[in-house]
Amino acid sequence: MNETASLPVSLNMHAVPLVEDLDGQVKRCRICNYRCELAPGQSGVCGVRLNQGDTIQTTNYGLVSKADLERIEDRNFYHLFPGSRIFTLGGYGLNFPPTLEQGRFVEPPSGGNNRFLPLERLAHFTIERQCRGVVFAFNEPTMWFEYILDAAKIIRANGMFTAMVTNGYMTLEALEMLGYYMDGVLIEVNAFHERSFNTLTGRDNFQKVLEIARRALYKYKCHLEIQTRIVPGVNESNSEMELLATWIKQGLGANVPWHLVGGFPGARPELDRIKEVGLNCGLNYIYVNEGTSVPATEEPLAAIFDSTVNGNTYCYRCHSLVIDRHNEEVRFSGLEKNKCSLCGATLSINNTLWK
Q: Cys-Cys link to 6, which of 2, 25, 79, 347 (CB 3.0-4.6 A)?
């Protein structure tokens, strides 16, 4: 835990909605699965939630670390409103080591450099820039939970979709509050073994992340995609990746997209090897990302039909081109709602706000 002095002075205080009273004035935060127990004056692992004696307050409400106008594929959502223009933004705070976080933004800057984004301005800006939706990323979104919960409600009320890129270490209670207002969730499942999960995060029980993925998909009807960041010497073994791919197929469905992310020298052969493992396990859509948003030119894997060559999307049944992603353009050549227009196969492509 951290002491008060480590927190920047912030006017953006907001009550944390999930707090449990313990002995004395000790409070337990129930936003993420660290479930920090905080004495008065202490902050959590995230560095943005503070026990003020009567309750826990977040210090980063509405403070933006980074924002950008992007295409949704830049956030590795390939089957959620493909090709759509989005407004992506993130806040501050981490609960996993920075090597696994989407950003490096830990604490809001002190002084007058804070960028506060009112909810009404968020909605108006997104509409003005003709965005189809808002994606919360860059940092772990649950560190910004209080703001995202309010923002998601107003975004959806204005006819736009919401999505987030998360490490999945939120509590079931937090998902219960947020799930109904979130249209898409990309969850990083980076380990399928306790040893790997502990090495990467310092925590145990990777099954908590898997349960969040299943509940987001089945209970809250969120569009779901899975991402795995390959770390050499930790989680790249065929056996671990086979277990993960099998779980995706059996627990979530063969059409749920699986994104493999590298970002280290020589990543491509490793990612292609793991992709082939996943295809042989029966997954239909496995996308490879070497650390750039533009898919690299690739040859289809010889072992089995590859439905995601060059970042495109092909029908897993009849092999016809469904979504063509070329030179930052997205063209629909064989899609009718969420079905292949040639053979009628139902695909995991979501183009509607209806859950």
A: 2
pLDDT tier at 8, thresholds 50, 70, 90:
very low
Q: How far is Cα 258 from Cα 78, in angstroms, rounded to an integer?
A: 10
- Maximum CA extent, the chain: 66
Per the domain annotation, does 214 fall within a domain? yes
Among left, alpha and beta (phi > 0; psi -120 to 50; other), residue 24 is left
pLDDT at 293 over 50: no
| CA–CA dist 233, 235 (Å, integer) | 6
User: 97: which residues sit within 8 A by CB, 6+ positions away?
Assistant: 200, 201, 202
Q: What tens digit of pLDDT does each residue of 10-60 get?
A: 557 899 999 999 998 999 999 999 999 999 999 999 999 999 989 999 999
Mean pLDDT score of the chain: 90
The DSSP symbol for 115 reads: -
DSSP assignment string, 35-99: --EE-TTEE-TTSSEEE-SSSEEES-TTB-SEEEEEEGGGGT-SSBSTT-EEEEEE-S--SS-GG
> Would residue 82 count as lying in a domain?
yes
Are 47 and 196 in the same domain?
no
Q: Which two tokens stand for residue 278?
A: 């996943």
Residue 352 in domain? no
| Helix, strand, coil content of the chain in percent (nearest 5) | 30, 25, 50
